[in-house]
Design brief:
It is a single chain. This protein is about 5% helix and about 40% strand. The chain has about 100 residues and is mainly β. The chain has one domain. Strands 1, 2, 3, 4 and 5 form a five-stranded mixed sheet that branches. Strand 1 and strand 2 form a beta hairpin. The longest helix has 7 residues. It is globular and about 45 Å long. The protein binds zinc ion. The site of zinc ion has 8 residues, from strand 3 and helix 1.
C-alpha cells in the first residue's frame, strides 16, 4: 500500500490570505450568488435571475465574520477553473447611483 502526503496550502477564497501567512482559515458555509462569468475576451456577462445558495468556502477570520451578514458574489471564467469571490457590497454599483 502506498501512502501519499498531501500538503495543502489553504487560502481564503475571498481575500487570498493564506494560513502560511498567519491567517487561520476555516471551511464554512456562506451565502453565495452566482453573479456571472467572464468570456474568453475578458468581458463580463452578468447572469440575471440566479438564486443565492449556501456553499462551502475556505475563509479567513475577517471574511468569515463578514460572511455572516453579507452575500458573496461568485464570478467564473469561461474555459478555465478560475473562480472569483467578492463581497457584494464592496463592488461599486453604478446603476444604483442616482
Ligand atoms: Zn479572507
Amino acid at each position: 500500500m502506498r501512502t501519499e502526503t498531501v500538503i495543502k496550502h489553504v487560502s481564503c477564497d475571498v481575500c487570498k490570505n493564506s494560513e502560511e501567512k498567519g491567517f487561520p482559515i476555516k471551511r464554512m458555509s456562506a451565502a453565495v450568488l452566482d453573479f456571472g462569468h467572464y468570456d474568453e475576451y475578458g468581458n463580463f456577462h452578468e447572469d440575471i435571475g440566479k438564486n443565492v445558495t449556501s456553499q462551502q468556502l475556505d475563509l479567513c477570520k475577517k471574511c468569515a465574520s463578514l460572511a455572516r451578514d453579507r452575500v458573496i458574489k461568485r464570478k467564473t471564467q469561461m474555459f478555465t477553473q478560475n473562480i472569483y469571490y467578492v463581497f457584494q457590497d464592496l463592488i461599486a454599483r453604478d446603476e444604483e447611483a442616482e
